[in-house]
Design brief:
alpha/beta; 715 residues; 29 helices; 16 strands; elongated; 7-stranded parallel beta sheet; P-loop_NTPase
């Protein structure tokens, strides 16, 4: 039964009876859409319109020569429209749960261990594999926060350090995690065995099929090319199928997608191994793809009973203009559909709201968005800029904490950022994968650890400490300390590849030697400490009682800035103290490059020296004379002293009190720090904030925060 389809010449003389019929005469329409996604959206709108008019799903089909190009759009819009659309060629495996589980396992085996990869795999295994369902959803919170966990040995150490109690039914889950890590560490050579141990059912079938189609090293490529059945019954669903499949089983209502010069018909290409100048392609393929597409188009055109819509996208997904297919009907008027048009039948609830602005504007979320946009562009400070109810509990809770130099900088220079950080608890996620380089912040932490370890060792060596150590001794101790710190970082921090990591360690060693051998007059009977905590800082709670007794003060005792009620804490990079406690020298190391003129408060951005000097005086009963300074090792030991520390602290206290008062009154507004090039919370500001929003609002913010804004202009 050929119907109205094309009958090949060889079949006529074969003796086989061929039954044909006259071609159908459907209502043909030509439609121009904005983009490939818009084509699918209009096709779904069209399908819903026919369903509303009484058509059955099994009468409707949407097709393309090669539907894979539109599959993502079709899948997303089908979910939103909640229509039964059957993918005749199957759905992409990676769009299913089982496919994602296989992909998560492949990622661990192909790219190695990491915190993110393993936690993602376990999250999927908890739903799929009954053995792992006992793991709590937050099991990963017991892992060390900064540990990179880039190999099996590190994972085993981290799991051993997890508490054995505190889980449901008091079951120790560490053996199960150890078993999982051991299974994954078998590697790609045992990919088949690993799949059998961790997966069952459809997920295991997907895994095994991917392994059968290529080597384990190409699992990601194999998985991305697999397709699975969507479990919908074709006889009761709208059909989304290749044109070749639809030509065999046509439907009365059909929408042809992608009638552009590139997509329908597709272009025939040469065989890369046997090009035309060696063997004619017609000898290898009797029906080239472009001829097959033309034949399928003719069959669909002749066999569609009621309506045939031919659509094309004016531009492709990247915005380039598309040519028109030679199969596109040109003898009928074309309907030009705008992407922003109001459809007769919306594809989904979201489509309806976007197409009907009057209906959308009555929703609370739309009213809120409109009010926010207006407030961002108005010439006054509003709630959407950071005005909050005075004495709001969230504001008071954000202030009720031990302050550090960095938190007070945020309070002075960016009250809104302070609220986001210490009120909402927003923070930048730590990098746990192996980086290709060591960024400035972790490099500074590395340098500080080497300096701390070196000073601690020199003071414990009973050779007169840092003050009497020769340059050769300091160099020796720095290198020994660097080896220990580097080994510790291998286990607790993500580090770059070995060659880059070794070079960065050498760079840190050179800077540490420069910092510790900088010419300076030792204090009488000098003792030195590095990274010495004060004010109950977290590091003070981690040191043992013996180490705590060796410090010049109780690191757990609170430190309050007189006249403000602000409690401060932290760790001083280095403290030199004379034997009679009458003289002290505070050094704050800066691993970056020195730029510009020597800063004092630097508009509120440089508070360490001032706060550390106050902490030393407040905690030592002898109230020593304190010399505070910044030291830049990259500038061959460039030293910047704080001038008039007592007067500077008094001035800073006034600004701090003004900042606390303004914050309590609800003035959590963006400050000058929001205009910094590397502002970490820029994602929460309005789009294009640095181009327009901040320029418009900062003069108004300065008026509202008039008691603080003079500080922003100071050196």
């Amino acid at each position: 039964m050929a119907g109205a389809r094309h009958v090949p010449d060889w079949l006529e003389n074969s003796g086989i009876a061929v039954h044909t019929c006259t071609a159908e005469k459907p209502d043909v329409k030509a439609v121009s859409c904005a983009s490939p996604r818009h084509e699918i959206l209009e096709a779904i709108r069209w399908a819903r319109q026919h369903l509303a008019n009484g058509a059955s799903p099994q009468e409707i089909a949407i097709t393309a020569a090669s539907p894979e190009e539109w599959d993502d759009h079709m899948l997303a819009l089908t979910e939103a429209a909640n229509l039964p659309i059957h993918f005749a060629h199957g759905r992409a495996t990676l769009s299913t749960f089982d496919g994602q589980l296989a992909a998560a396992l492949a990622e661990v085996l192909l790219r190695g261990f990491s915190r993110m990869r393993v936690t993602r795999l376990v999250a999927l295994l908890r739903t799929h594999n009954q053995r792992y369902s006992s793991l709590p959803g937050n099991w990963w919170q017991q892992l060390p926060e900064e540990a990179p966990l880039l190999d099996a040995a590190r994972w085993h150490r981290a799991i051993d350090a997890m508490p054995s109690e505190g889980y449901a039914d008091s079951v120790d889950l560490r053996p199960l995690l150890h078993e999982l890590i051991d299974t994954l560490s078998m590697g790609l050579v045992a990919a088949d065995r690993i799949g059998e141990l961790l997966m069952t059912g459809r997920a295991l079938a997907i895994w095994q099929k991917a392994l059968s189609q290529g080597p384990a090293e190409a699992l990601d490529v194999s998985l991305s090319g697999l397709r699975v059945d969507d479990n919908l019954e074709p006889a009761t669903s709208i059909l989304w199928a290749p044109a070749q499949a639809l030509a065999a089983v046509p439907r009365p209502l059909t929408w042809l997608v992608g009638l552009t010069s590139r997509s329908f018909p597709r272009r025939a290409g040469e065989d890369p191994l046997l090009p035309n100048h060696i063997v004619e392609s017609s000898r290898l393929n009797s029906l080239p793809v472009h001829q097959a597409d033309r034949r399928n188009f003719a069959s669909i055109f002749a066999m569609t009973e009621k309506e045939l819509v031919c659509s094309r996208a004016r531009r492709d997904s990247e915005g380039r203009l598309n040519g028109v297919s030679p199969l596109y009907p040109r003898n009928i008027p074309e309907t030009h559909l705008a992407q922003s048009r109001e459809p007769e039948h919306a594809a989904s609830a979201t489509d309806r709201l976007f197409a009907r602005p009057n209906e959308f504007t009555d929703l609370p979320i739309a009213k809120s968005a409109r009010a926010t946009w207006i407030d961002w562009h108005t010439g006054r400070i509003t709630a959407h800029d950071g005005l909050i109810k005075s004495e709001h509990p969230l504001l008071l809770r954000a202030l009720d904490r031990r302050q550090s130099a960095s938190s007070l900088v945020k309070l002075l220079r960016d009250p809104l950022g302070y609220l986001w950080t210490y009120g909402f608890g927003w923070s930048e996620p730590e990098e746990t994968d192996e980086p290709l380089k060591l960024d400035p912040l972790p490099f500074g932490n590395l340098l500080h650890e080497i300096l701390q370890e070196t000073v601690t060792r020199l003071e414990a060596a009973r050779l007169g400490g840092l003050a009497k150590a020769s340059e050769e001794q300091i160099t020796l101790y720095v290198r020994e300390a660097a080896r220990e710190v580097a080994a510790r970082w291998d286990d607790t921090h993500p580090v770059p590849p070995p060659v880059i990591w070794q070079r960065k360690c050498e760079e840190a060693i050179e800077l540490a030697i420069t910092a510790l051998t900088h010419q300076q007059e030792p204090l009488p009977g000098q003792r030195s400490w590095a990274e010495i905590p004060f004010g109950g800082d977290q590091r003070a709670q981690e040191i043992d009682a013996e180490t705590r007794q060796d410090l010049p003060w109780d690191p757990l005792a609170p430190v309050i800035i007189i006249g403000t009620g602000i409690a401060i804490g932290g760790a001083i990079d280095r403290l030199d103290l004379s034997s009679d406690n009458s003289q002290a020298r505070v050094t704050d190391y800066k691993s970056g490059k020195f730029r510009g003129k020597p800063p004092q408060l630097k508009g509120g951005a440089e508070l360490q020296r001032c706060l550390y000097a106050y902490a030393v005086k407040a905690q030592l009963a002898d109230r020593p004379q304190v010399d505070t300074r910044l030291l830049y090792p990259r500038a061959n030991g460039k030293v910047l002293k704080l001038e008039q520390p007592q007067a500077t602290l008094a001035k800073l206290a006034v600004f701090l009190m003004a900042a606390v008062t303004a914050f309590k009154e609800g003035l959590a507004l963006p400050g000058p720090a929001a205009q910094d090039a590397w502002y970490d919370l820029a994602f929460a500001l309005p789009g294009g904030a640095k181009e327009s929003y901040l320029d418009n609002k900062m003069p108004l913010v300065a008026q509202k925060l008039s008691a603080i804004s003079p500080l922003w202009d100071e050196d």
